[in-house]
UniProtKB/TrEMBL annotation:
Its EC number is 3.2.1.21. Homodimer. Transmembrane segments: none annotated. Coiled coil: none annotated. Keywords: Glycoprotein, Glycosidase, Hydrolase. GO terms for biological process: carbohydrate metabolic process. It comes from Parnassius apollo (Apollo butterfly). This is beta-glucosidase. It is an enzyme of class 3 (hydrolase). It holds the Pfam family Glyco_hydro_1. One of its GO terms (molecular function) is beta-glucosidase activity.
């Protein structure tokens, strides 16, 4: 559906680009794995494209070329002692399924289950770490509330809730298919949730309550049904939507409830949490919030505002400011709220523009890894860490303007040359030395005359880094 979007409305992308070729990992996957070896990482998180496997959405036709590509990538990783961590769905729904309602259509639950079964059948002999759906909150909010992402459906009153409902059931469907049919493969199933940390703007009771709602609407909507003993949505999430719906004249809540069977089906349907984290917010609820949002809408239901401390270092993306203490706070919060689940950090990174001297990214990684080590010392059960991202890529509506890669990709070069940035050298040195060296300051321009130069440091494939977490790249 993203291909459809950029073809029908290319001006919707900030630089009028598309993802047809992007970094061209389809043809350059061996170079990608070579870069992973250069850095010394132990596992690689990547996403499988649903339409590449099932061009018509359903499992009645499987594209052999798509299967062959992912087989080749998986085998190349394993032959280089790199463990594949695979996401089944990262927002690229087959267009014909989008036209049938996408994640607003209840049929998608079983259709996604059939897709998951195809992946298990074809790759499960080698893939032992599966993640079902990437960032359901972001996907539902941007795609079905604000219409800022594909499929650009504008349903502010119910889009988040209906999309989220189907995604939770679809995730659980994929989990139970694995448990019932493929558990003999010896793998595990997780889900990818994104969350920032939230601070109250003041010490007022209203701001304290607003922070609780911030967590309920962003993380709790998806975390509570899976990772709590009782299952279901957070009660304050249920109550706020029901109360708002009633005052707006609705006879029933705009949030459709799960029945007991569905609650039990979703509850416990993950072996680990894959957590994406980038930044923090400051949360407030005061008179200025009244009339701020469309009525009815999920934003009005939540009833809070957010902003960021302008003193926090800013990335190229307006939404991204560095504040590493929030990372620590979030991890400890998850430990204490959700009985310390197994966590893999599956995205964490900083945006910049073009150029190899990405000092902001270097500082970001050092600070956030330091905060992560503090969280592990506090008993948080973190098993692995993925930097976002291995190389520059198509960043949705921002095209190639905002860059997250440790390797710069020359998008205008037909060969899509990859060149290590300063952050690549620093990241590699952290893995090699098992130390966050705040003084290490490599010059990427003197060292990057050719792509092989980064190999001058010994590659390392151990699964242990400073205590007990492992390094990877997305």
């Amino acid at each position: 559906m993203w291909d459809h979007l950029v073809r029908t409305d290319p001006n919707f992308i900030a630089d009028n680009t598309n993802g047809d070729i992007s970094a061209n990992s389809y043809k350059l996957y061996k170079r990608d794995v070579e870069m992973l070896k250069e850095l010394g990482v132990s596992f690689y998180k990547f996403s499988i494209s649903w339409p590449r496997i099932l061009p018509y959405g359903r499992a009645d036709y499987i594209n052999p070329y798509g299967i062959a590509y992912y087989n080749a990538l998986i085998d190349e990783l394993l032959s280089n002692d790199i463990t594949p961590f695979v996401t089944m769905y990262h927002w690229d729904l087959p267009q014909n399924l989008s036209e049938k309602g996408g994640w607003l259509n209840e049929d998608l639950v079983d259709i996604f289950g059939d897709y998951a079964r195809v992946l298990y059948e074809n790759f499960g002999d080698r893939v032992k770490h599966w993640m079902t759906i990437n960032e359901p909150y972001v996907h539902c909010y941007q795609g079905y509330v604000t219409a800022n992402h594909a499929p650009r459906v504008y349903l502010p009153a119910t889009g988040l809730y209906e999309c989220g409902r189907q995604i939770l059931l679809a995730h659980a469907r994929a989990y139970h298919i694995y448990q019932n049919e493929f558990k003999w493969q010896g793998g595990e199933i997780g889900v990818v949730l994104s969350m920032d940390w939230g601070y109250p703007a003041t010490d007022s009771e209203d701001d304290a309550e607003a922070v609780l709602d911030y967590f309920a609407f962003h993380l709790g909507q998806f975390m509570d049904p899976i990772f709590t003993e009782q299952g279901n949505y957070p009660q304050r999430f249920i109550d706020r939507i029901a109360n708002k719906s009633a005052t707006q004249g609705f006879q029933i809540s705009r949030l459709r409830p799960f029945n007991e069977q569905q609650i039990d089906y979703i509850k416990g349907s993950a072996d680990f949490l894959a957590l994406n984290h980038y930044t923090s917010d400051i949360i407030y609820r005061n008179a200025s919030v009244i009339g701020m949002y469309e009525v009815p809408s999920c934003n009005d239901d939540a009833g809070f505002g957010t902003y960021k401390d302008p003193s926090w270092p800013s990335g190229a993306s307006s939404w991204l400011r560095e504040h590493a203490p929030g990372f620590y706070n979030l991890l400890v919060y998850i430990k204490e709220t959700y009985n310390n689940p197994t966590i893999y950090i599956t995205e964490n990174g900083f945006s910049s523009m073009t150029g190899l001297n990405d000092d902001g990214r270097v500082q970001y990684f050092r600070n956030y890894l330091s905060a992560l080590l503090d969280a592990i010392s506090a008993g948080v059960n973190v098993r692995g860490y993925c930097a976002w991202s291995l190389m520059d890529n198509f960043e949705w509506t921002f095209g190639y303007i905002h860059r997250f890669g440790l390797y710069e990709v020359n998008i205008t070069d037909p060969n899509r040359k990859r060149t290590p940035k300063k952050s690549a050298y620093v990241y590699k040195e952290i893995i090699r030395s098992r130390i966050i060296d705040w003084e290490y300051d490599p010059d990427p321009y003197s060292q990057s005359s050719n792509a092989v130069s980064i190999q001058k440091y010994a590659s390392l494939t151990s699964f242990v880094l400073i205590l007990r977490f492992i390094f990877a790249l997305y």
